[in-house]
Amino acid sequence: MAKYKFEYIWLDGYSPVPNLRGKTRIGDAIPKSVDDLPLWGFDGSSTKQAEGKSSDCVLKPVAFYPDLSRDDSSFIVMCEVMMPDGVTPHPTNHRATIEDDEDTWFGLEQEYFLYENGRPLGWPSEGYPPPQGPYYTGVGYKNVGGIAREIVMEHLDLCLAAGINHEGINAEVAKGQWEFQVFGKGSKKAADEIWVARYLLERLCEKYELDVEYHCKPIRGDWNGSGMHCNFSTKYMREVGGKDYFLKLMDAFEKNKDEHIAAYGPDNHMRLTGLHETQSIDKFSWGVADRGASIRVPHSFVKNDAYKGYLEDRRPNSQGDPYQICSRVLKTIAEVPTA
Q1: Could you read off the pLDDT of 198-251 as tens digits, one per residue?
Q2: So where are the chain's domains?
Q3: Half-sphere exposure of 93 (CA within 13 A, CB side)
Q4: What's the CATH number for 105-334?
Q5: Residue (of 259, 203, 197, 205) closest to 228 by Cα position
Q6: Number of neighbours of residue 289 by Cβ within 10 angstroms
Q7: What are the beta bridge partners of residue 170?
Q8: Alpha-carbon distance 195 to 133, whole Å?
Q9: Where are the alpha helices (DSSP H) in the chain?
Q10: CATH architecture of 4-96
Q11: DSSP bridge partners of 26
């Protein structure tokens, strides 16, 4: 009888940044849908999600992906963490806080550094490389290092093989810094796929004996930090829009500025300084094609005075939990009437 491997992955209870965890379950059949995958227990006392005297937690599969990098009998299973009854969401389960809407589309841009021996990959063992300038979308060994492109291209292939709606990759502004983009129709889908893409990247880097550094400002000084810019649109924004609605939406984002910052990842004060293509953490602004604004408004959005399309919130950082980011954006959008 054929056997199949299912890597159940989930987010632990560490704060402010959860870690990915995973363990493999053996099954006898390929599931037709996620409903065919059983709940599975784990020791929450070892992941800061339970006490030792009552340690049971439950994994609830929410999506699964072929893991063809291993073989055609392997799958990755994204899970929510539930209480022992298997029904009540665990307090660390931020996916459960999302009021999902498939008409709300999200595009998330995950920036990160590859690290070797405590320093960005491609940096000299002491001191700094030449200043920023040639690294963004750079080509050549001196700009992107040796093995980095091999890793990011392999990661791209792994994501595509898994069926993740990967939109692309590029070298970023700082040396050793990279970005990948994931788009999803529906907030839970987009956020699930960012987490699975992160899992694939971290697992891949095990092979190369490298680390993935998600901290939003790992290098102090005149070096770009790392973000996870959040592009979003609703059906109303895409099909109706209008300047009046847009201005009311921006008022709602400004009113909820502090709530957004709280959901957008830790240590953002180190990154949102008003420099390096950011707005200051204590301010809110929007601007057409302005990468120094809190919300960048694409030219296509204001074309012909239509105010239709998508917007980019540039404040979320690279360590942020996409579940919390999408949840907060949805809550603010819901405050603005569409009629």
Answers
A1: 999 999 999 999 999 999 999 999 999 999 999 999 999 999 999 999 999 999
A2: 4-96, 105-334
A3: 20
A4: 3.30.590.10
A5: 197
A6: 11
A7: 179
A8: 30
A9: 141-144, 148-162, 187-208, 235-239, 243-255, 257-263, 268-271, 299-302, 322-334
A10: Roll (3.10)
A11: 5
